[in-house]
Amino acid sequence: MTDTLPQIRIFDTTLRDGEQSPGASMTHREKLEIAGLLEEMGVDVIEAGFPAASQGDFEAVSEIARQSKSAIICGLARSSESDIARAGAAVRLAARPRIHTFISTSPVHMKHKLKMGPNAVLEAVGRSVGQARNLVDDVEWSAEDATRTEFDFLCKTIDAAITAGATTINVPDTVGYSHPQEYGALIRALIEAIPDSDKVTWSTHCHNDLGLAVANSLAGVSNGARQVECTINGLGERAGNAALEEVVMAMRVRPDTLAYRTGIDTTGLHRASQMVSRVTGFPIQFNKAIVGKNAFAHESGIHQDGMLKNTQTYEIMRPEDVGVSDSNLVMGKHSGRHAFRDKLASLGYELDPDALNDAFRRFKALADAKKQVFDDDLVAIVDEQLSAEGERILLKRLHIVAGTDGPQTASIEVEIDGASHTAEASGNGPVDAVFKAIRAVAPHDGKLDLYQVHTVTGGTDAQADVSVRLNGEGIMAVGRSHDVDTLVASAQAYIHALNKLEARRRKRMAA
Ligand code: KIV
Ligand code: ZN
Question: Based on the domain organization, do 362 and 430 belong to the same domain?
Answer without folding.
Answer: no
